[in-house]
Amino acid sequence: MSPARRPRLPRSNQGKNDTGTKPAADTPASSETGEPATVRVNDPSKVRVVPVEDSSRAEPDTAETTPDASTKNAASRAEGGEGTRTDRSSHPDPEENVAGDKADQDNIVAFPGRRAVRGRTAGTSSAASSSSGGDSHEKPRRSRRRKVLVSLGVFVVAAVLFLGIVFFSPLLATQKVTIEGANLTDKASLQKSLDSLKGKPLTRVTTKDVESKVGDDIAVQNVSIEAHPPHELVVTIHERAPVAVVKSGDQYILVDKDGVAIGSKKSVEEAGVPLLDGGPDAVKSDAFESAVQALQTLPRSLLNQLNKVDAESSNNIQLDMKDGSKVKWGTGEDSDYKAEVLNSLVQGLKDSGGASVYDVSSPDRPVTK
CA distances (Å), 215 to each of 52, 192, 257, in order? Predict the structure, then answer.
């Protein structure tokens, strides 16, 4: 008689014990209670039931309990599958994870259409967001650029209009030329020359233009101009200032501080400056410079009282006053200080009738007689 086949009982998740071996095939799930297992079969005489406590110590009867090869293999496959699934679920295998990742990669490679669509969608959304972000930044930038360009254009137009009005418009054309400071120069002839500037815009009249009209008048040292809009041009003549006159024949030649002859008068009184002894050659001597230093430092009140300057040498300058008194000046050094001392002496002695001699050659120790 062939051995009876035992029915396969349901297994719990504990497919393996602590040692890793499979439990006995004939151990029922209800053995945990310690009670004998109850199995319902068609022919009870063919099955021997062993209690659980005995089955753990004794080997089962191979003649009666060992199933045939096909049954054993099926049970092993079933148990192996359940155990494998249980172990894999409770203890994941790293190789399986790698295999799963590889499978995912394979899936990605296997479905390029879906990946490409997803990539294009992401790229499109990124590009759209980038475009929207760029537009949001670009709009204020364009607005600022437009404002700058508009402001620049307005400025350029205003500048062109201003330059056109100032430099080329007849609104600021010269219509009147006023001459000031012309005492030694022929004012009538100078006015006639400068009237040729009429009609020219005030902003375009330069100092060189006026100098060319004045010409090489020896009495004119330099000129300056000033525009009085809308139509008046003021020309100031800076003439050489005469410091003395020298007698040449019956004429009295006016000379400035540099010894330049700037005019002539018929008398000393008409010239309004003191007479320098020595004739025209006096301006070429070394004493002339010392005499000029003395004359330039004297206040106007003393110059009006001065009649003649005697410059025998640079160390011996003497001034002759109109009231007959004399001033011993000495050298041209400390001329400013000497002029102050002399003025104090004259003013101090005015009430007492003055002095006949004022010696200021040593200004710290002046002497009067």
Answer: 146, 12, 22
Pick the CATH number of 171-239 from 1.20.1530.20, 3.40.718.10, 3.40.50.2300, 3.10.20.310: 3.10.20.310
The domain defined by 244-368 carries CATH number 3.40.50.10960: yes
pLDDT above 90 for 81: no
Count CB-CB contacts under 10 A for residue 69. 8
For the sheet containing 176-180, what is the strand order? Answer: 176-180, 232-239, 220-228
**At 140, is the secondary structure helix, strand, or coil?**
helix
* Residue found under tokens 């050489």: 240
Question: Residue 95 pLDDT more than 80?
Answer: no
- CA-CA distance, 222 to 185, in Å (whole number)? 12
8 Å CB contact between 329 and 321 = no
0.85 cut: is pTM over it? no
pLDDT above 80: residue 133:
no
- Name the DSSP class of 183: S
